[in-house]
Amino acid sequence: MVFAAPGEARARAEEVLGDRPAPLRASVAHQVIGIWQRDFGDMRLALSHLRRARAWAARADSAEREADVLATLGVALVHAGRTRQGMDALRRGVERGTGHTRARVLFRRAYSYWVLGHHKEALEDVRRAIPVLRQADDVIWTARALTLRATVHLALGSVDRADADFAAAEALWETTGQEHDKADAVESRGLAAFRSGDVPAALRLLDEAEERYAKLGTPTFMLSIRRCEVLMAAGLAAEALAEADAALGALDGIGGQSTRRAELLLAAARAARLADEPQTAIARAALAARLFAGQRRTWWEAHARLVLIEARHAAGRGSGRLVADAAAVAEKLAALGAPAAPEASLLAGRIALDLGWTADAERHLVLAARSRHRGPPLARMTGWAAQALRARAAGSPRGVLEAGRRGLDVLDDHRMTLGASELRARATAQGAELAALAQRASLVSGGPRRLLVWSERWRATALSAPPTRPPADPALLSDMTAYREIAARAEEARMEGRPVPALEREQRRLEREIRSRTLHIRGEAPDGGDRFDVGRLLARLSEDVRLVELAVLDGRVQVLLCGQGRVRRFEAGLLAAAETEAEHVQAGLRRLAHPGAQARLPVVEAAGRRLEELLLGPAAAHLGDGPVVIVPPGRLHRVPWALLPSLRERVLSVSPSASSWLRAKETAPPRGGRQVLVRGPGLATGGAEVPELAGRYGGATVLEHEDATVPRVLAELNGAALAHIAAHGTFRADGPLFSSLRVADGPLIVHDFERLDRSPYRIILSCCDTARFANVGADELLGLVTALLPLGTAGVVACSAPVNDAAVVPLMLALHERLDAGLSLAEALRDARAALPADAVHRATGWAFTAFGAA
C-alpha cells in the first residue's frame, strides 16, 4: 500500500505497532513507516524505523523478511549519503534472500546503482531480476523493474530501448491500483519525451504526474529535478532555478534525502549558469560536487564538475588549468558512457582557443564535433558549434558558414516542434553562438549581402510562422474566462482603494495554469518557414525606398543599407551606449506627456541626435529622400525612431526582420474592407476619437460599453480590414504574453489574439505601451505587436511609451483622415504628426507612436 495510498499505509502501520504485534508483523510495520519517511519525510526517522524492522525480522527468525528489510535499509542509506554502508546492506540482502525475494532485492540494488550512476551494474542486476519476477507473476515489481531499466537506458542515451520498456511497464501498471507508481510512470514518460526532443509533451506529462502526486499528498523532488532539465532546454532557465531552489528549501525543511539534495543543487547550478548568474552557479555546483564525492557517485560528480568549469569560464576565468580540468571531465564522462561528454570536450576546446592553444583546441573540438550527426537536437547543436570553432581556428570562413547553416537547421527543426510562441522565441538562444560565428565569417567572406543573410537567419525567427493555434481545450478556455473575471475584479478593487492580495494570488495561479497549458501545445509547421532571399527583398524595394537593417557584431552596430539593387555596410556606434541613450529618451518622453515640461524638449531632441549618431552613423547621409524601413535588433525595440533627425519628416516604418517586412508587403488585404472600432473603459478622454471615426466609417462595427467584451471583440476582429482599439494597454515584463488591452469584461491578452484565424490586416492601438516587448532568446521579441504580425496583420500603429491621452485624439483623427485618402499606415502617421500643434506634449505624442509592417 505504501506506493498506492502512502498516507493510509503509514496510518495502518502505526495502528499495527500500537497493538503490540508479533515480531514478523512489527518488522513489516516499521519497514512501511521507514519507506514512507525515506521517500516523503525525514531520513533520520527512516533509518531508525528500518533498523528496528531489521531487528524484529531477526527475532522472527525469517531470512526472507530480513533480506527484504536489508534491501530497503540499503536504499535508505544510499539516499542518506552513506554509500558504503548502503551497498553492504544490499549485498547482505542478496546473500540472505532466495528466489522471488532475492529478485526484489536485486531490483533495489539496481536502483541504488542507478542513483550512484553505476549504469552497467544497474542493468546487470535488473536483467537478473526481471525473469524471476515475471515467473512469479509479480506484476507490480516487474513493472517497477522495467521502469528502472528504461530509466537507465535513458541515462545512457538509448531512447528506443527506454520507450519499449516504458510501454511494457505502463501496460502492467494499468492492471494494478498502484497510484504512486502510476504517477511515476507518467513522470518517466515525460522524461522519455524530453530525451526524444519533444519538449511540449515532456512538460504536459510532468504536469500530469505532478497532479497525480498532489492527490496522493506526496512530495515531488525527483519530478522537480526532471522539470528543471526540461525548462532549461526550453529556454526557461530562471524558472528552472526558482523551482530547484524552492524544492531545496522544501527538502531541507523535512530532513529529506541527501542524494536528492545533491541532484537539486546540480539542477540549480545548471539553471544559474544558463540564467547568466555564474557566481550562483559556481557556489551550487561546488557544493553539489562535494556531496557527490562524499556519496561516491562518480557519474554525478563528473556532471557537477562540468557545470562548475562552465560557470568559472562564464565568470571570465580562463587558464590552462581550466582546460585540463575540462578535458579530464570529458574523458571521465566518455568512460562512463554519458551523453554530456561532447559538451565537456567543446568547453575544453573553447577555453583552449581563448588562450590561443590551437593544437590543443583542435584535439578537444574533434571529439565534440562527432556528436553533430546523432542524438537529440541540442546534442547535435553542440557538435556543429564545435565544428564551427574548428573552422574558425583553421581560418576557413566557408567552413564556419557551413557548420552554422547545418547547426541552425537542426535548431529550426527543433523550434518548429514547439507550438507556443514563447518557447519558439526562447529556443533561439541555443543558436546564438553559431549565428554570431557565422555573422563574423560572412563579413570576411561575402561582404554586406552575406552579412544581411546571416543577420536575418537568427532575427525574429519566432515570427517566421504563426504559433500553433491553441486547442479548444475546455479547461484552458475556462481558466482564461476565470482569469479575465479575477483580473477585472482586482482592477476595480484597486481603483476603489480596497486591498487585493487574495485576488492577486488567484490571478497569478490562473496565469500559471494558462501558461502551463499553452506550453504543452506541439508545433504543426513542417519546417522553419521561407528562407530569406536578398534578391527578393531588393526587388520588392521600390527605387526610392531604403531598408536599414541593424546588425550587431562584437558589441558594435553595423548598418546594412538596402536599396537600388544593392546592400551597403556602414559602421555606427556601440550597442550598449545606444541602449543607455534610448532609456534616457524614454524617460524624457514620459516627462513630456505632462503639460509644463516644455523645457525638456531640447534635451530630448539632443538625445535623438546622439541616438542617430550611435545607430545610423554615416549611413544617415545615404538614406535618400524616400520612405525608410528600420529593422532593429531586439535590444533596441524601445527606440522612438521618429525622433531621430534624419527620420523625423519621413515615411517611416519598423519591422522585427526584413523577412517579416516582406511577408507584410506581400499580404493581400481581406475582401470586403470591414472596419471595427473598439472603445474600452476608463480612458481619460473616454476614447473620444471613436464616435468621430464611427461617423467617418459609416458601416463600421462599433464595440463599446457592455458590447466590448473579449469574445465579441475577437469575433469581430477576425479577418477585419481595419481595426482601431482605444483601450488602456498594460505591458507585462514578467509575462509578456499576458500584456493586455482592457475591455468591458477584463483584459484582452496576447494569448487571446493567438486564437484568431486571421488578425486584422491593419490595426491601430491608440494607447500606451502597446509597442513594448520583452527581448528573449537570441534576438526575439514577445509582445502584442509581434503576436499579431504572424497571424495575418500587415501593419500596426502602436505606442512605445506613456502618452498624453488628450493629445492622442487629434493624432488618431488625422491618421484616419490620411488612411481614408488611400495612404499607408506609415504615410498617414507621418502626415498626422505634421498636422499636430508644435507644443512639446503633441510632438512627444507623435514621436511615441510607430508604424510596424508594410500596410
Structure description:
The protein is α/β, with parallel strands linked by helices and 855 residues long. The chain is 61% helix and 9% strand. It is built from 36 helices and 16 strands. Strands 7-6-8-12-15-16 form a six-stranded mixed sheet, sandwiched between helices. A five-stranded mixed sheet has the order 3-2-1-4-5. A hairpin with a 3-residue loop joins strand 13 (774-776) and strand 14 (780-782). Helix 4 packs antiparallel against helix 5 (83-96) and helix 20 packs across helix 23. The chain is globular, with a radius of gyration of 31 Å. The mean pLDDT is 91.
Summarize this structure as a short list of keywords or feature phrases:
855 residues
